[in-house]
Each structure stands twice: as C-alpha cells, then as structure tokens.
Amino acid sequence: MEFTASQIAGILEGEIEGNPDVAVYKLAKIEEGEIGSLTFLANPKYTSYIYSTEASITLVNKDFVPEQALSTTLIKVKDAYESFSKLLEYYNKVKYNKTGLESPVFLSESTVYGENFYLGAFSYLGNNVRIGNDVKIYPNVYIGDNVTIGDNVVIFAGAKIYSETIIGKGCVIHSGAIIGADGFGFAPNSNGEYSKVPQTGNVILGKNVDVGAGTTIDRATLGSTILRDGVKLDNQIQIAHNVEIGEHTAIAAQTGIAGSTKIGRNCKIGGQVGIVGHITIGDRVRIQAQSGIGRNVKDDEFLQGSPALNYADYNKSYVHFKNLPKLVNRINDFDKKSEDK
Predict the structure, then answer these.
(1) Which of 25, 17, 51, 55 is nearest to 39 (CA)?
(2) Which end of the chain is more exposed for a tag (fewer CB within 10 A), N or C?
(3) All structural domains of the chain
(4) pLDDT per residue over 149-160, tens digit each?
C-alpha cells in the first residue's frame, strides 16, 4: 500500500513542506529512515537525525523550524507523536480489512455473523455463536458453543475462546490467548487426593479490552470472571476464576492474579506482580514490578516490594537495607569495644 504526502496530510489535517506527490509504503524510525518510508520527530533529542534521514516523509510539530536543508518532505501537525499513532491505527485498519470465509473452516449451522466478517482457514465455530459486524477471526482460532462476540473485534491466529464467553465491542485478542478455560478448582478429600470442582461460570470482556499473546483468563466457578471496559492486558498474564478488573486498568506481562480478587479502575500493575486471592484492590492503585500483594489495598496507594510496602517507605527502607553490612560492622565494633572495657 502506498500513500502520498497529500493523502497523509489530508488524513492528519497537516501542512506539507516539500513534495506533495512523494509516496511512502512503509514506516521507520527516524534514524533508520529509507527512501519510501515515513517517520516522525517528536522527541527533541532526535532532532539531529532529521537532517540525515533518508525517509521520504517526516511528521513534525507545527513549531518545528529546520536549521539546515532537508531532503525529507515535512508534514507539520499539532502533535507529531499523536498523529503518527493515528496513522498507525489507520494503516492497521486498511491492512487488516479482510472479508470472507477461507477454506477449510467449520461453522455450525446455528452460527450467526454480521457484515464484513472474516474467518481464517482451519478455524472452528461451535453451536449458537453470535458474531457482530466487522469482526476479523484469523486462522486456527477455536470458538466454543454459545459465545457472543461484539462488533469490530479482532481475534488473532491460534486463540482459543471457550464456551459461554462474552466479548464486547472493539476487543483485540492476540495469538495464543485462552479465554474461558477452567479455573484452578480442586477440593482435597480424606485420602489426600484432589477432586475437581466443576467450573460452570463464564468470562465477560467489556468494550475495547486488549488481551495479550499467551494470556489466560479462567472462567468463574459460579457467575463470571469480568474484565470491564478498556482493560489492557500484556502478554503471558494469568487471570484466575471469579476475578474482576475495573475500567481502564493496565497490567504488564507475567503478572498472576489469584481467584476471586477484585481490582479497581485506572490501576497500573507492573510485570511479574503476584496478587493473592479473595482481596480487594482499590481504584488508581499503582504497583511496581515484581511486587507481592497479600492484603487489601486502598484507593490511590503506590506499592513496591514483597510483601508490598508503600512506595516511599520501601525506598527509605531500601537505603538502610543496602547499608546493612556497614551497620552490622559498626554493631560488632561497638560490642567488641564494650567487651574490652
């Protein structure tokens, strides 16, 4: 796909300085720009590269004034970074605008789907599946019985969606994600063996939820595991049964959340965080990477460590922790002097 400077300026409502007919067909970092590529300059520390880049088109802020001659065509916009992101979104819409049913696939006779539907080869859709408009399902996807999928959902290759799952509008589910597998429910008996507790609930994803590659979200034992509107999950995250996550909370890779924990809205949770089950975490909580959360957390807390402490308290304590060898030596010296007396 090729786009001219004029076309791009029209999409972004930008002003062109240079050749309006120059065309690009790929994207690049400004320091790696080549002929036929589009790049952007948003961070001032990269300004020197604009004079050497070979990119055909560069997005810049409106207040940018070159101090040397340029070989690249400029498109001046209000915010170069935001405009580049907008252009990426537009590019992806064009790139992934596939329609039709590839072969072979399996669709139950009771499957219903909307307009502009795409289903990749070797996919399986079970009984009573309901799919909205503009949904794209890539090859090797499994969708179980009674699944509901809203408009503008994208499910990438190899994802598995178990029965009864509800997926809201605008969700993106990446390759290898598994949604709706059984929760980790086993009850010990008198012989010391474990009997499986049936997991009869489902998973509900709100609108505009992103689920990263290899992430797993377990169905509820009873009721629903719920991720509300705008939740963003990185790759390789484990969400256990009956967990609830509030609107616009973002969670980084390799975090694990145990069963029946409730997490509030607008939280930010770093990578490799471990959260125990049956606790409540408030709104706007921030948790640093590799922290261990074993208690209820109030709104607006900022935590680090395992077990996690208030972020400021953790940093103050860590200063003393680093000095422990010196402090021990001082204590030993003091004891020795005391004994000598």
Answers:
(1) 55
(2) C
(3) 3-95 (3.40.1390.10), 100-314 (2.160.10.10)
(4) 999 999 999 999
